[in-house]
Each structure stands twice: as C-alpha cells, then as structure tokens.
Specification:
The complex is a heteropentamer, with 1 copy of chain A (234 residues), 2 copies of chain B (250 residues) and 2 copies of chain C (268 residues). Chain A has 234 residues and is α/β, with parallel strands linked by helices. Helix content of chain A is 35%, strand content 24%. Chain A starts with 5 loop residues before the first helix and ends with a helix. In chain B, strands 6-7-8-3-9-10 form a 6-stranded mixed β-sheet, with helices on both faces. Chain B folds into 2 domains: 174 residues, 3-Layer(aba) Sandwich (Rossmann fold); 68 residues, no CATH class. Chain B is α/β, with parallel strands linked by helices and 250 residues long. Classes of the chains: A alpha/beta (234), B alpha/beta (250), C mainly alpha (268). At the D-E interface, helix 8 and helix 9 of D face strand 6 and helix 2 of E. Bound molecules: adenosine-5'-triphosphate (2 copies) and magnesium ion (2 copies). One adenosine-5'-triphosphate sits at the interface of chains E and B.
C-alpha cells in the first residue's frame, strides 16, 4: 500500500558491495553520506574480496553500488552488462611492511633479497604489482611464501614470521605490530579502485557522487588512499 | 491357522531340507543334535532367514517361497530366538510393553499388560532393570513374556527354558501351556529337553543334519527311538535312564 | 557386568592422547594469551558482534535441524544398502568435505542463482531469490555440515547390528516402530557425535556463506563472516577478529554443554 | 540371522534421504555444467596444479596418519573416562571445529612461530622454523581434522560396549591385546567414518594453512590454496579455480574409493 | 591353588553375601534359583564385578577386597560367562586361538592349539564360521574351548552346557572333567542340572537370594535336601523322579 511517508517514498534503500580494504574508509563515508542525504537509506554494505563480490553480482546479487579494489574484477561486471561506466575513486601504493622492531634492518627494497620475505602470489593483484615494483627497481627476491592475499602477508609480518613483505599502504595503517617503509619507485606502481552503480536507483548515484566528491576523497586520504584524481594525473 | 512348511536352506556341509505341518491349535516340538538345523527352520518361518526353495504357508497365505519373502512383521508369526535379544536400552517392563505394542495394543494398554506379565512372572523386584542388570534366567523369562505379549498367531520358541532352574522351568512350561490353550495359538517349541516335549507338545519332530529322521506323536517317537540320538533323549526321562544311575554311584 | 570394572586404557596410550589434546588446545591458549584484553570486551559486545552471534546461533540451529531431518534418513538408507551402493553414496557425500568451501559457495550460486533454472523456478513460484538471504546462510551451512552428520550416523548404525531389529520385527513391529524405537536409540552415540560435528561445522562455516549468502550485517553476516571482515578489513584488524573468535568459541562451548543430548553416556 | 533379511527402511524415509543427496550433489553438477571445458584440461594439468595436487595428497595422508596416531588413543581415553571428564574433553575438542580456520592459523602462528617459546625451543633443538615448511601444512591440517576423527571414533567406541572386552580380559588378555584385537576392530565402522572425515577435511583445509604455512608452490601450496589464489586473481581466475576444484574432487573420490578400509561393511 | 572367597555385593532386594573355599584341584558346583546370585559370585571372582566387602584370595594373593580390585587379566582366573561373548569379528578358530594366546602361547602355538580344539570338538566343518553363523550349541562349545585353551589356574564356567543336546552335553562334561584332571585346575561350575553337579563336582553349594542354604559333598546335599528347591533339583535325577512318570503317562 502507499502509506509510506513522503521522505522515503521516492528512494529505495541501497546496498553496497565494497572491497574489504575499503572497510574503514567506507564506514566513515557512509556515516557522513547518511547525515547529508537522510532520504537515502543504506540497507547494507558487504565487504569482501573483489572477485567474490564480482561473482555474486554476476550470479544475481541485488547490489546498487560496487566498489572494487582492482579494474579487472570491475570490467568483468561491466562487460557482462551489469554496471554503468565506472569511475576511478582511489588508489593505493605498495609499502614494505616490517615487524615493529625491524629485526632484519630493512630500509629499502634491496634488503628484501637477503631477508625472509613474503609476497602476494603472482596471480592476485597485489602480487603482480609487487613483481612489477621489484622488476622496476631491479631487485631479485625469492619469497619464502607467495601468499594468496594481503592479509596473509601482513599476518606473517605481524607475527614476526617474516622479516618483510610488500603490502598496500592502507593495510598497515592501524596494524600496531607492523612498521612500514615507502620504497623507491612505489609511486609508479599504482593500484586503482573503480566504483560503479548498478541499476537505476538514484540513491546509488548519490552515494557514488559522494565518494568522488571532495569530502569523500578527503576521507579516503585520511585512511591512506591516494585519490582517484591523482591517478588520473599520474 | 494351519502352518505348512516345506523348505530348503543350504548350510555348510549339508542342506536343511524339511517338510511338515503344524495343525491349527497344536504344538510341535522340534529336537535334534546341536547344529542340525532347528533354529534355521524357525528363523525361516519367522522371516529372518530366506529359503532357497520350498514354500511356507499360513492358512493359505504364502509367507515365503523361492521368489517371495514376506517381511517378518507382516507374518503374524512371533519368535523368541535362542538369543533373546532383549533391547539393551529398555528396562524389563518396557521390553515387554514393546512386545504388547508391536502386537497391536495402544500405549496405555501395553503398559498395563506389561505390568501384569511382570506380576505373573513374580519379577516385580527387577521390573526396572535393564537387560545388562538381569540374571540369565530373568532375561529369558522377560523375553518369553515379551513374545507372548505380542500375541502372534503362531508362536515359535527356540530353547526358551535353557537358562532356567528346575522350578522356574516348570512354572514357565505351565505358563506357556496355559497361554497357548487360552488363545488357541499354534506353536513350535525347539528344545533339548524331553520333559519340555512331553509337557507342551502334541507332535515331535527330530532332525539330524537338516533332515527329519523321526516324526509323530511325542510319546510314540520316544517309545520307538529311530536312532541313537532319540534313544539318548528318551533316556533322560527319569525312571528309564540307566546312565544317570551309573553317574550317581560311580 | 558392572560398568565400574570396565577394561582400562593401556597406560602408554595416554602420552599420544595428551599430545592430541595439546595440539587442539595449546593454539587456543596461545591465542588467548596474545589477545588484547583492553579492547576485547568492547569488541565482543559491540552491537554488530552480538547481532552476528545471534544470527549464527539461529542459522546454526536451523541448519542442524535441517541436517538431522535430511541426514538421518539418508544415513539409515546407506546403512541398509548393499555394499556397492553404500560405497558410491559415501563417495558422493564426502565430496563437499573436500571441496574448498568457497568453491562450494560458487557451486551453490550456480545452482540457485538467478541465471540457473532452479533459481528461476523458485523465483517464478514464490517470487524470492535464495542467494543473499538468511535462508541462503542456512543452505550453505547445511551443505558443508550434512556430510559430517551422515557419515558418523551411518557408522554407528552399522555398528549397532541387525539382531535387535530382527527381534523387534518378529514381534510384529513395523518399520517405523523399529526405526524410531530400536534402531535410532541404539545408534544414539553416533547420532550425538554427528549432531555435535554438524552444529560445530555449521556455526564455523565461512567460505560457502561468504559467496552464496554474502556478508550483509544482520541478514547474512554470521560470526565467521564478521571475523573474516574484521580480519581482512584494513585497519580494524586482528585483535577484534580474535575477540570475536573467542566470543564465538565460548558461545559454542556453552551451547554444546547445555544441550542434554550432548552426553552419549546417557545410553550406556 | 541372515543379513539378506535385514529390516528395511520405511518407505517415507526415502524422500528426505534423496533431498539430502540432492543438496550435496546438485551444486556439484551445477559446477560441472558451468565449467569452461575449453580451458579445463589445460588448467587441471598445468605443472603448478599437479604439484599442488601431489603436495595435497602427501600432506593429507601424513595428517591423517598423525591424527590416527594421536586421535585414536584420545578417543579411547574419552570413551573410558567418567561422564564429566569426557564431556569436558569433548567440549575442548569441538573448539577447533568452530574456530574459523583462519583464526586457527593465527593461533598456530602464535604457538609455533619463531617469536614464541615453543618455536624458539624447536629452533634451538633442531635449528628449524616450522612456518613456511611442509611440516606446517601437516600441522595445520591435523589441527582442523583431528576433532572429526576423535569424535566419531569415540561415538562408536561407546556403542561397542564393554562385554567383549571383559570376556577378553577374563581370558587373560592384557590391555594392549584387548585394545588392538577387540576394542578397535569392534569400533571399525566409526574408525572408518572418522578416517574418511579426517582425510577429507585435511585435504580440503585452506584457512589455517594459508596463515600458518603460507603459499609457496611445491612446499606449502596445497590444492585449496592454489584454488583460492586462482579465484582471487581476476579474469579467467574463476574458471581455473573451478577446474582445480574438480581435479581435487576427482582425486579425493578416487583415493577414498581405492582405500580398502573405506568399506565399513567389511566388518559385518 | 586354593581359592578363598568371602564377599558381599548389594543387589536389588537383597545382598549377595557368601563365604566359601575351593580347595586346590577340586571342583565346586553352584546351584540356586534364577536370580539367586550365582553369576554375581563368579563375576566377582573373575574380576568383572566389584565387591562391597569381604576378600577374595587365591593361594594367599588378595584378588579383591573392599579397597583393592585386581584387574581380570592379572588374576589367573578364567571365566566362561553365561553369555559366551564370542568375539563377533573373529571366526570359531580365531576365537579359540585368542584364548590360547591370552593364556600365554605364541601365535603359531595358539593357532595349532585352536585347530586341535576344533578337532576335539568335532567342529571342523564350521571352523571358519563367525559367531553369527554358528548354532547356539556350537557357540557354547567354541566358547568353552576358548576358556579351556586359556589354561587358567581357576576355571569358572557359568551354565556351560545349557544350549547343548543330551549327547553333546555328555561329551562336553567328559571333556571338561578330563581337562581339569589333566591340568589339576580348580573350578567352579554354575549349573541348573543335577547331572552336571554329579558328573563334575566334588562339592555343591546351593544359594537362595544371595545366601548359602546348603553346602557339602554333592551326594550328601542331594541326599538330605535342605529345602524345596534342593528337593526339586534332586528329583530331576532319573529313577527318583515321580513327576516325570506322571508326565509321561498323563
Ligand atoms: N547364518 C548362517 N550362515 C551359514 N551357516 C549357518 C548360519 N547359521 C547357522 N549356520 C549353520 O547351520 C547349521 C544349522 O544351524 P542351526 O542354528 O539351525 O542349528 P540348531 O539345530 O539350532 O543347533 P543348536 O541346537 O546348537 O542351536 C549349523 O552347522 C550352523 O553352523
Ligand atoms: N549389574 C547389575 N546391577 C544390579 N543388579 C544386578 C546386576 N546384575 C544382576 N543383578 C541382579 O542381581 C540378582 C542376582 O543376579 P545373578 O545374575 O547373580 O543371578 P543368577 O543366580 O546367576 O541367576 P540365573 O540363574 O538366572 O543366571 C538378580 O536379581 C539380578 O537381577
Ligand atoms: Mg539353535
Ligand atoms: Mg546367572
């Protein structure tokens, strides 16, 4: 029946799928977005690996906004005809993560060759980026393990099992057992985050706009991300 | 309810191969050396043993032949096996009540019937014991009551008094006889005791290695022993028993 | 035979047994000693944690009930099947055990998703899509937990032996009476073990749920998903994942201790 | 009592049983029908896939053996313990079932890592560090699989009853002889179920291995890790994840069918 | 090996409370109505039943008292229980070999001994049958052979001939007697049959509700029946049995 109030009559609540690494940033973004747009209700935000989220969307998940941690998963969705034109809204660069006391005295990429180093596996995005960075800098590293995601790399370092690992800048931000070193050439290997809306929910568009807005970019920066604009420039 | 039996069941070394009838309301005793096929025959009639050939018929209904096998619970035949298989998770009372319920009584009636049976057996003291906490003879009596409580059309009892002392065995024989007469049930009693055959049965059938070697009215079979085994059994009947006197005064 | 005179365990079995307990318990102790106690209580009592816990309990119980309803008949059927068929069924049933749960989730999506015939059929019938709903959580949990129930119940049904069932049948008891009053009570220890394994596996389930049901707080975000999210989400981190894990563990242990059926000894 | 006259299953148990089989098997069929057959063979026969498969098999078998060696004594001990102690042990043992494997992996890292007392002790003794080694894979698999073995074996030990053991003891048989010649053979169906569950869980293990042992091809990258890695890689990743899963499944089924012990019927 | 027994075991309704001895090399028969405590006593001596008070001593070694309980396998006492508990996963031959091995023989010797026992029992035909495929009497004989093969210092046999036909029972009595004499083993035979007591035992002990009501040399106890039960048992001895004649000619 049509007994709904005039405020929410227009706009359906929106659901968001976002890459796991965006969680803390999106938590704050959604809070401020809701304050600014009381007419748009966010019914849920699912955080998970980008490929999981992409698979779900392809198999019928009712999602209004999709924020991916890489472009390949995004293009799988858009090529299947689900999303609109995506926009790059954030970027992330690699850092060397070392245990807080840095037992192997790492301070540059060159040191990784001698230490117990863990990297992401070549197949996953952070792994291919790591390889490229090492190649760019001409460093040969035989990793002790090729972890299948960033979290596994980070935990190995945090537990002191590995002397160093390559992860994204945002990953180490609140990990108190880990210190980070920005390696040379990191700014040249940039991972970009695309976002898109699916379907025609105007709330979704409003959310996406907010993420790309100045305030949205500011929040992302506070959480360690580079901005989409930078990427566009670089 | 006349039971007509003709069956063959292959066993190691020989086949059990017999043919006999149990007329309505009568009781047949079955004897024979250990391993001669007595249990095999009652298992086949009860439906927990398939037959390779022959036909088992109860008042015209085919219970089994080489092709069909009516499941045990649809045969109206009750069996107290040589191993009584009291249900280990139920106490004595519940075991009997299970029989009554399986025989068609409702829950309350089955419970009452079980209590009555326990009283008749004089086993009130151990009514709530589980089988593991019953003596051998108590187990056997509870199992007998359970089989009787199920009120089958044909009752098969395989060595039902083997673990009982003289007095209890006499009491139980009397009880079975009374029940069979009261309900007009036909029965087959497998036993090693000539006294059981005399007390309970009209006819006697003696087996050896799966074959019937003697058959007829009980006294007649004992009176004209067909072989050494029948003679030895008949000899256990008191006042006719030369060996026991030897043993008594060695 | 009095139970207080049971044959005791050989002394030298005690060392490996303790090693076994150690392998299971010591990692937990390590986890507990490294937990950051300052934030633990806050993490474990946050509204999101409690809502995830409540969802986990509800779906875990629902999945266990579903598994019992489907799994016990299946176990009975297998225990009574000819050896070859039983063997085949066992092999089929072990499959979801081997499948990495995430792939199981993909398989469930393929089966029930909007592109599948079944998904479209359900949609046309009741106008619902299964994936990404609480029902999907229950299905995912049942999918991974059912094999545990079936295999352990079947094992103990086979051990129970047919003598008592035959005795019951010769008394005139029909199949249903034999099944419910004799067979299942005799298999009770295996049933209890199966239910424990099943419940524990269901509420610990993560991979299949993540894919098939998604990770929406209050609807499909169970504890393991909340833990995973905390763990993988940058920033929030491992401490709160550990806190949530301890909360889940404590709850599971309490549930299992409270459930009366939890004592297979009841039958002895 | 001839086995060919066993009491049959009530007819109406068949519907739920089939539903149960369907829940387990249909998702797999969906997976198979959606597999991209063009690349499947290539994906499944790549050197990396085969090396991961071989590692999975070796570590899975090793973990199963370890679980049997530790778990059977533990199950025997539990089955013979007073009800209260057994209950407590059962609660402890169920814990790793509930724990999301990835948290279990962190716990193992804390326990055996090179910063922990045990890790340092092992290092000083043999000069080795466990993480990143194949041994770590076996430990992680054992950690998650052991509870399945213990709980199903304990269930069937309790069902086996003490009468035969007492009879053996009164003949003069010592504890070891009773255990190996009477108790365990009688509990064989539960043992078989337990070993199946244990092996299947071990070779399906992913989360704990990923964190504790890492993902080094040939050393610690088991099939599930290879599958996850493929899945998390974008593009054709999912297809090759499915291909690898089917390879793992087929192998597991073959192993289980080949293992002679796989037939609990052997005891009947 | 003199066995000295004084024990109390509480049961529903009464306590089993007895004191008796079995002198070295002698055999004691134990009789009594079903549920009177016979099995309880032999279980306590074998060590599968704890005693609440008293002391069981074998040639000076305390097997059990209120505080200690020596486990069964360290007692040198062998038991063939009323339920023979043949191991279901082993065939007849292996069951006997298990007994021989538990009694101390090595693997090969145990196997040979088992084969010899099977031959003595004349059960070669079913040597490789598992218990489920044995007849009741075959089971009982295999279990008896298993107990004898274990060569205990004291042999306890609880109703060892209950499922046997007349001839097999006589054979088995002779076999047991021969073995006991050959090895000088003391024994306790629980039985409901006066013939067993006469054939095997030196002394007889009669129980009722856990108490000894008659004790002495076998013939003497039967000659002066202490109560109705003993009289009824004695009456089963042939040539003294008025009831059987009644039954034979009704
Ligand atoms: N399930 C079976 N499979 C094969 N042979 C069997 C089976 N059960 C019994 N037998 C064999 O069949 C023969 C007949 O056994 P049955 O149990 O009918 O004898 P019985 O006359 O009842 O003997 P008893 O008086 O000792 O109980 C025996 O030799 C026995 O070993
Ligand atoms: N485990 C038990 N716990 C409690 N009571 C028991 C237990 N086992 C037997 N009883 C009871 O103790 C009494 C004596 O039993 P016992 O088995 O010693 O009798 P029995 O003389 O061997 O009789 P039978 O000749 O029938 O075998 C019986 O009343 C029985 O119910
Ligand atoms: Mg028989
Ligand atoms: Mg007794």
């Amino acid at each position: 029946s049509a007994s709904t109030s005039s405020e929410d009559a227009a706009i359906e609540p929106i659901t968001i799928s976002a890459a796991a690494s965006l969680q803390s940033a999106f938590e704050q973004i959604s809070e401020e977005f809701s304050a600014e747009h009381p007419e748009v209700k966010i019914s849920s935000i699912s955080y998970d690996g980008s490929s999981t989220l992409a698979t779900q969307i392809l198999e019928g998940a009712d999602v209004d906004v999709f924020a991916s941690a890489d472009e390949r998963n995004m293009s799988e969705v858009t090529e299947a005809g689900f999303g609109h034109e995506p926009a790059i809204f954030a970027s992330n660069t690699l850092v060397i993560a070392v245990p807080q006391d840095n037992p192997a005295d790492i301070d540059s990429l060159d040191d990784l060759a001698q230490a117990t180093t863990v990297l992401c596996a070549q197949q996953v995005p952070c792994g291919s980026a790591s390889r490229q960075l090492l190649e760019d800098q001409g460093v040969q590293v035989t990793p002790a393990s090729e972890e299948q995601n960033v979290t596994a790399v980070l935990q190995k370092v945090a537990a002191g099992e590995a002397d160093a690992g390559l992860v994204y800048a945002t990953d180490v931000l609140n990990e108190e057992n880990v210190a980070s070193i920005v390696p040379e050439g990191a700014e040249d290997v940039v991972n970009t985050y695309p976002i898109t809306t699916l379907g025609e929910n105007p709330g979704a568009q409003a959310f996406m706009d907010f993420v790309i807005s100045e305030r949205g970019q500011q929040i992302l920066a506070e959480h360690g991300f580079g901005t989409g604009a930078e990427q566009a420039n670089g | 309810m006349t039971l007509e039996v003709a069956l063959r069941v292959p066993r190691t070394g020989f086949d059990v191969d017999v043919e006999f009838q149990v007329p309505a309301g009568s009781t047949l005793a079955m004897m024979g050396p250990s391993g001669s096929g007595k249990s095999t025959i009652v298992h086949a009639i009860a439906g927990i043993q398939k037959i390779a050939a022959g036909r088992i018929e109860l008042s015209g209904t085919v219970l089994a032949d080489a092709k069909q096998h009516r499941p045990p619970h649809l045969r109206e035949v009750g069996l107290l096996g040589q191993d009584p298989h009291l249900f280990p998770h139920q106490d004595a009372l519940k075991n009997i009540a299970f029989g009554a319920r399986a025989g068609g009584l409702d829950k309350a009636a089955a419970k009452a019937a079980a209590a009555e049976w326990i009283a008749r057996l004089g086993l009130e003291e151990i009514a709530t014991h589980r089988p593991e906490a019953l003596s051998g003879g108590q187990r056997q009596r509870i199992a007998l009551a359970r089989a009787l409580a199920a009120a089958p059309k044909i009752l098969l009892i395989d060595e039902p008094f083997a673990s009982l002392d003289v007095e209890a065995a006499m009491d139980m024989r009397a009880l079975v006889r009374e029940e069979l007469e009261r309900t007009g049930t036909s029965a087959i009693v497998v036993s090693h005791s000539a006294a059981d055959a005399l007390a309970l049965a009209d006819d006697l059938l003696v087996l050896e290695r799966g074959r019937i070697i003697a058959q007829g009215a009980v006294q007649q079979v004992f009176a004209e022993p067909a072989n050494r085994f029948v003679r030895a059994v008949a000899a256990t009947l008191p006042a006719q028993h030369p060996m026991s006197i030897q043993e008594e005064q060695p | 035979m009095a139970s207080d005179t049971g044959v005791r365990v050989p002394g030298f079995a005690i060392a490996p047994a303790l090693l076994g307990v150690g392998l299971l318990v010591l990692p937990l102790l390590a986890l507990i000693t490294r937990a950051s106690w300052s934030t633990l209580v806050d993490d474990a009592t946050s509204p999101q944690a409690l809502s995830a816990l409540w969802l986990s309990l509800r779906t875990g119980v629902a999945a266990t009930v579903l598994c019992v309803l489907l799994g016990v008949p299946l176990a009975v059927l297998m225990a009574r099947s000819p050896a070859r068929i039983a063997q085949l069924l066992r092999a089929l049933i072990a499959v979801p055990l081997v499948l990495p749960p995430m792939v199981g989730g993909v398989a469930l999506l393929f089966l029930f998703g909007r592109t599948s015939p079944i998904g479209q059929f359900i949609d046309s019938l009741w106008g619902i899509t299964l994936p990404f709903s609480t029902a999907a959580v229950v299905i995912a949990q049942s999918f991974v937990a059912l094999p545990f129930l079936v295999l352990s119940v079947e094992g103990s049904l086979r051990a129970a032996g047919a003598g008592y069932e035959q005795a019951a049948a010769t008394l005139g008891a029909g199949r249903w009476m034999v099944l419910t009053r004799i067979t299942l009570p005799l298999a009770a220890p295996g049933l209890v073990a199966g239910v424990i394994l099943c419940f524990a596996r269901a509420i610990g389930e993560f991979g299949a749920t993540a894919l098939f049901a998604g990770n929406a707080p209050g609807i499909t975000q169970t504890m393991p998903l909340a833990i995973y999210t905390a763990f993988n989400g940058a920033g929030t981190g491992r401490d709160s994942a550990v806190a949530l894990s301890l909360l889940l563990l404590a709850t599971a242990v309490v549930v299992l201790l409270l459930a009366r059926a939890w004592r297979p000894g009841a039958l002895k």
